[in-house]
Specification:
Chain lengths: 326, 325
């Protein structure tokens, strides 16, 4: 008798595991599922050396941004010295890494600001612009795309005409005009970027939603009486999530590039330091002609490093979401 | 749906898009905080003179009358008078647009020649170190801001070696009789080289990556094996047979990219002080010359809209497999 029981147990162990796991509550199951998916994605991502390096670079920039007040040697917008007449400072201090006789690692700007500290604080502006713009671009784009793709018909037509219209607007000129009209501040730059950038995400997510809504599991949910909102949020959204992440990571890169460009033109926020405003100042004071490369080379290198890391991580992720590319 | 009805529908759509862009532009400028007249009227003017100026720009009429007038004028490509230059906006556009086109088309030709060639090669030699390095180069070209690359070029070759001029389109001493005479002068080419090459480097990544993935797709098709079986030379297969079939996506991508390139001319023109339409738009925005800002913006938007339209039509023409539904 006892022997029999043991054999049945051993045959149905896997089933019994399942039944026992039913006692786990819903949240635990969801988090376990998420953890497994994330671990799998993480493993695929970090498979490639370039992606690993990119993540390292981004992590470094994030650390610099968080600990900016402790890393920077001076407040970024505080004049370090004054001339006799008190207003105009024509000449900068040479950087100490080049043997300049000063305490400033990268010297100072012609306005008397510490370049190294500006560079450190510029990281904050770049990451702020990139992350906020990316979250909203991906969020709005995904919502619009899902609604358009799921409902189809007039709703789809109306939303896609808006997207078509946005595609007719040149990115940088539109952002420039919007920022000029709203006033030069970091928030207005972010807002202008969001207004234009969600168009790409919306288009891609919509086409995905169009094919998803014909799948049996959506039909089954409809027959079971699930509300539209329930289907969109529980059945469609999880399926397009990797794609919105992907477009979000590209949006980070575009937002940083756009901010740098707008600031460089002279519409940057006068009260915050960004890499773009640093480049604009160096140009305004003809640092090029004087060969003061420690002023205009580092911000460009930082922008390039951060943006290319974003693109490489995005590409790595693209290979996961679209195995054909591998 | 047939091809004719597709074209008609697309033309109607084109008209609606133009109307939408114009409308948004009009209300954006009119509803902004601040009085546009304050930038053209000096405080010393007498009230009569002030009213005269306001009336001459039509700024005293109600908003909807201004809007209807704006649309009517836009249909005849009339964007009003520049506040600053005292010349019609049309004239301003006509002086700056050719300069932008020369710069962009030169850069585009260079970029697409090298981009396509490198794309074909990197698709052919898939998995090699050459392929990896071209893809990385293309990514770098798209990631590093082009205006900063322009600054570096100006610093190294302009300020350092003194081989390229620091700004502008022509030297001080040169006399410009006609546009085409100027374009073919040595002085002009010296000015053109740096911005065109920097732009070409920036544009190159896009055709390279598209061509590469298109080649990968074509190379898996049967006719490539047939060519091999016939004993054709590798290079003949690569350029004569595979590349020609892979070229299709490039054509439409190029039309669309050219539109965005003209729209994105703002930064490089600013860096090199190239008197083009993008730089003029920025200057108009900064000094609040609204008619010029509106007009130049419309030109940039129109380039994108029209080239998108062209890309749609050309695609159907080049690829008979396309169906219209």
């Amino acid at each position: 008798m006892a022997q029999e029981e043991r054999t049945t147990q051993s045959i149905f162990t896997d089933v019994e595991d399942r039944t026992s796991s039913e006692e786990i509550n819903k949240w635990e199951r969801t988090t376990r599922l998420w953890r497994e998916t994330l671990r799998e994605h993480w493993g695929l991502l970090t498979d490639e050396l370039s992606v690993k390096l990119s993540m390292l670079v981004v992590a470094l920039f994030v650390l610099v941004a968080i600990f900016a007040p402790w890393i920077a040697t001076n407040p970024p917008l505080q004049r370090q010295y004054q001339t006799e007449d008190g207003i105009l400072i024509a000449k900068w201090v040479e950087p100490s890494i080049l043997g300049g006789n000063s305490e400033y690692i990268l010297g100072t700007t012609a306005q008397g600001f510490d370049i190294f500290s500006q560079l450190v604080y510029g990281t904050r502006a770049a990451l702020l612009v990139g992350l906020i713009a990316a979250v909203f671009t991906a969020g709005i784009g995904t919502m619009v795309g899902l609604v358009a793709g799921y409902y189809g018909g007039t709703v789809d037509d109306a939303l896609m005409r808006i997207v078509d219209f946005l595609y007719g607007m040149p990115l940088l000129p539109t952002v420039i005009i919007l920022v000029a009209l709203l006033g030069p501040s970091l928030w207005n730059i972010i807002l202008a970027v969001i207004i234009l950038q969600w168009r790409a995400t919306a288009r891609v997510i919509r086409s995905q939603a169009l094919s998803l809504r014909e799948r049996p599991f959506v039909k089954a949910a409809q027959v079971a009486g699930a509300s539209d909102w329930h289907i969109i949020s529980r059945h469609l959204a999880p399926n397009v999530l990797p794609l919105s992440f992907l477009y979000g990571s590209f949006a980070i890169a575009w937002a940083i590039l756009t901010e740098a460009g707008v600031s460089f033109i002279g519409l940057g926020d006068p009260n915050t330091v960004s890499w773009g405003t640093m480049l604009q100042a160096s140009r305004a004071y003809s640092a090029l002609q004087f060969g003061a490369w420690w002023w205009f080379v580092p911000p460009g290198v930082c922008i390039g490093l951060l943006v290319i890391s974003g693109f490489l991580i995005g590409r790595g992720y693209e290979e996961i979401t679209n195995p054909k590319l591998q | 749906m047939g091809k004719a009805s597709f074209v008609i529908r697309r033309i109607l759509q084109l008209g609606v898009t133009f109307w939408a862009v114009g409308t948004v532009l009009f209300f954006m400028f009119r509803l902004m905080p601040g009085d546009p007249t304050s930038f053209i009227i000096s405080p010393q003017m007498t009230p009569e003179a002030r009213e005269q100026v306001i009336a001459s720009y039509g700024l005293d009429e109600p908003l909807y009358v201004q809007y209807v007038k704006f649309l009517q004028n836009a249909l005849t490509l009339d964007f009003g008078q520049s506040f600053q230059a005292k010349a019609p906006v049309q004239e301003v556009i006509m002086t700056y647009l050719p300069n932008t086109l020369v710069l962009m088309l030169t850069a585009f030709a260079i970029a697409y020649f090298f981009g396509i060639t490198l794309g074909v090669l990197s698709g052919w030699y898939r998995g090699s170190r050459f392929e990896r390095s071209t893809v990385i180069t293309a990514l770098v070209a798209r990631s590093v801001p082009s205006f900063w690359v322009g600054l570096m070029v100006l610093w190294v070759f302009g300020a350092g070696f003194g081989v390229i001029p620091m700004s502008g389109m022509s030297g001080l001493g040169s006399d410009t009789q006609s546009f085409w005479q100027m374009v073919f002068s040595v002085d002009f080419l010296r000015h053109l080289a740096a911005p065109a090459l920097v732009l070409a480097y920036y544009f190159m990544g896009y055709p390279l990556l598209i061509m590469r993935s298109s080649m990968l797709e074509v190379l898996s098709e049967d006719f490539v094996d047939v060519c091999r079986a016939k004993g054709l030379k590798e290079r003949t297969i690569m350029f004569r047979h595979a590349a020609r079939n892979a070229l299709l996506p490039i054509v439409t991508a190029a039309a669309i990219a050219l539109g965005y390139a003209v729209g994105g001319s703002v930064l490089i023109e600013t860096v090199f002080a190239w008197p083009g339409i993008g730089r003029e738009m920025v200057r108009a925005v900064l000094r609040r010359d609204f008619p010029v800002a509106q007009g130049t913006f419309m030109v940039l938007a129109a380039t994108i809209i029209i080239l998108n339209f062209v890309a749609d039509l050309v695609y159907g023409y080049l690829d008979p497999r396309v169906t219209y539904d």
